[in-house]
Amino acid sequence: MLFSQFEQQIKSYYPRQKSFLIGFSGGLDSTALLLLLAKLREKSPDLQLRAIHIHHGLSANADAWVGHCQQICQQLQIPFLLEKVQVNNERGIEAGARDARYHAIRQHLQPDEVLVTAHHQQDQTETFLLALKRGSGVSGLSAMQICSELFGLPIFRPLLRFTRQALLDYVQQQNVAWIEDESNEDNRYERNFLRNDVLPILRERWYHFDNAVQRSAQHCFEQQQLLKELLQETFYTHFDQSTQTFHLNQFTQYSDLKQKALLRLWLEKLAVPIPSTLQLNQLIKDVVYARQDSAPQFQLGETVLRRYQNTLYLTPAFLDLRQVKINVPLHRLITLPDNLGTLLITEKEQTQHQQLEAIWDRQGGAIHWTLPFTEQPIQVRFHYSGKVRLSATSAKEEMKKIWQQFHVPVWERQRTPLIFFGEKLQAALGYFNVVNE
């Protein structure tokens, strides 16, 4: 019975999908998933399965779990992948382990594969209640969906409507052992506290509690989808797909509710964790309504939301490079700081006059820039506040004004290699050369 329902789930959601990567911890749930997919492969021999096990290094038994999972996969003739990760617990062990896990899986997922996880009905209840505890809106209370995307990964949860008891019965019928993680008894973890202490009482009082939560989560999901549909036309008048930025034209004329809804859609589009209501209110106050001549920013986890002129940008948290000075010998590749790529300055060939060529190779392509020849020491810096002249007939202007003329956002001004000949600024790569007297 369970297998036939599982097979129907596959046919309903992925009728033509032939490649799945299975998240396999070795616990009861993922063991049931592995067995069900292996049985499905017996009926569809062209089905390609791989299993990935993430070694978090958080348990003394982690190495033994690897051996168990490897053995089960070998018996089922399913290729086994092992990935060891380091867990950053700044936001808590649970969040750190999840982030590390999905980051590792993303490195292995092939373009034609879909990640399959073993989340079931009781997991859905826990996720809903944790979102409720955080004060989430309809997006958070939508909990998990059978098909979704997380961390840029397509995720399929075919067991989401199945109870844990049904999975337990199935694995016991197959006479296959599974791992019991001792940390599941540790109620310091919020999910374990719900699972071990809170939910048994609720289920004893209300037998269909999990079904009711699942319906509520589905209602929230449908409301969220309707909201997106109603806002879609307006959203795309602000969202620039080519730059992934958000324009603020006419934005302040909307109601507070509409402003927050549109910003949530933008952040969701960029796969950024949605901020709390308090954060969102502060963001709108400090960034959207900041003075026009300011360069406001707001920290969102590992990213920074910034405004330049009338547009919002989302960037990494950059290092301050204003004091950095790097000597650049000719014909030697230099690695620039903070993931800015590499720089090579060489003599330009086949020119009537001696010239130099700077090749700045950064993510997204290389910039080739012509410089006059010099015998002075060449240096790269990332900050200059004096006056410069861009042509023999123009007056000197403050560097700030020059950046504004080229519409360069404030943070990019400190990430653009500035070429100095001796102590004189010669060029801002990709933007302009300077005329020196």
UniProtKB/TrEMBL annotation:
<dbReference type="Pfam" id="PF09179">
    <property type="entry name" value="TilS"/>
</dbReference>
<dbReference type="GO" id="GO:0005524">
    <property type="term" value="F:ATP binding"/>
</dbReference>
<comment type="similarity">
    <text>Belongs to the tRNA(Ile)-lysidine synthase family.</text>
</comment>
<dbReference type="GO" id="GO:0006400">
    <property type="term" value="P:tRNA modification"/>
</dbReference>
<keyword id="KW-0067">ATP-binding</keyword>
<keyword id="KW-0819">tRNA processing</keyword>
<dbReference type="Pfam" id="PF01171">
    <property type="entry name" value="ATP_bind_3"/>
</dbReference>
<feature type="domain" description="Lysidine-tRNA(Ile) synthetase C-terminal">
    <location>
        <begin position="378"/>
        <end position="434"/>
    </location>
</feature>
<dbReference type="InterPro" id="IPR014729">
    <property type="entry name" value="Rossmann-like_a/b/a_fold"/>
</dbReference>
<keyword id="KW-0436">Ligase</keyword>
<dbReference type="InterPro" id="IPR012796">
    <property type="entry name" value="Lysidine-tRNA-synth_C"/>
</dbReference>
<keyword id="KW-0547">Nucleotide-binding</keyword>
<comment type="function">
    <text>Ligates lysine onto the cytidine present at position 34 of the AUA codon-specific tRNA(Ile) that contains the anticodon CAU, in an ATP-dependent manner. Cytidine is converted to lysidine, thus changing the amino acid specificity of the tRNA from methionine to isoleucine.</text>
</comment>
<keyword id="KW-0963">Cytoplasm</keyword>
<dbReference type="GO" id="GO:0032267">
    <property type="term" value="F:tRNA(Ile)-lysidine synthase activity"/>
</dbReference>
<dbReference type="InterPro" id="IPR015262">
    <property type="entry name" value="tRNA_Ile_lys_synt_subst-bd"/>
</dbReference>
<dbReference type="InterPro" id="IPR012094">
    <property type="entry name" value="tRNA_Ile_lys_synt"/>
</dbReference>
<dbReference type="InterPro" id="IPR011063">
    <property type="entry name" value="TilS/TtcA_N"/>
</dbReference>
<dbReference type="Pfam" id="PF11734">
    <property type="entry name" value="TilS_C"/>
</dbReference>
<protein>
    <recommendedName>
        <fullName>tRNA(Ile)-lysidine synthase</fullName>
        <ecNumber>6.3.4.19</ecNumber>
    </recommendedName>
</protein>
<dbReference type="GO" id="GO:0005737">
    <property type="term" value="C:cytoplasm"/>
</dbReference>
<dbReference type="InterPro" id="IPR012795">
    <property type="entry name" value="tRNA_Ile_lys_synt_N"/>
</dbReference>
<feature type="binding site">
    <location>
        <begin position="25"/>
        <end position="30"/>
    </location>
    <ligand>
        <name>ATP</name>
    </ligand>
</feature>
